[in-house]
Amino acid sequence: MEYLRAFITGAIICGLSQILIDKTKLTPARILVTYVVLGVVLTGFGLYQPIVDWGGAGATVPLLGFGYSLAKGVIEGIAQSGLIGVLTGGVTGAAGGIAAAVVFGFLVALVFKPKSKS
Predict the structure, then answer these.
(1) How many domains, the chain?
(2) In-domain check, residue 116
(3) 97 lies in a domain?
(4) Are 85 and 35 a contacting pair, CB within 8 Å?
(5) Do the domain assignments include residue 12?
(6) Is residue 61 part of a domain?
(7) How far is residue 99's CA from residue 101's CA, in Å, rounded to a whole number?
(8) What is the pLDDT of residues 24-83, one digit of tens each?
(9) Domain range holding 29?
(10) C-beta atoms surrounding 100 within 10 Å
(11) What is the DSSP string of the chain?
């Protein structure tokens, strides 16, 4: 049942993204940034945690989940370090995802030999 809830949550997020792409003039990059900011804002107001509790990886893997990780890191950083936690908490909270993106990006670049667009 956990897999089904994660699938449904991720499908809803992706479906909303596709609707935004099809029905608005927003570029995909703006939609991605909007999702990260929305994840931070919803987490700040305590509205995203119930979605994460219900949807699991379906809520934490998409870009809303990246915003959630940043916000959770900032909240924990403030609790531990005070005001300096605003600057350090987000990076600490999302360090695993950032490191994975760099490592996997590097490995894919080694395998597929990227070329410039010119």
Answers:
(1) 1
(2) no
(3) yes
(4) no
(5) yes
(6) yes
(7) 5
(8) 999 989 999 999 999 999 999 999 999 999 999 999 888 888 899 999 999 999 999 888
(9) 2-111
(10) 10
(11) -HHHHHHHHHHHHHHHHHHHHHHS---HHHHHHHHHHHHHHHHHTT-SHHHHHHHTHHHHSSHHHHHHHHHHHHHHHHHHHGGGHHHHHHHHHHHHHHHHHHHHHHHHHHHH------
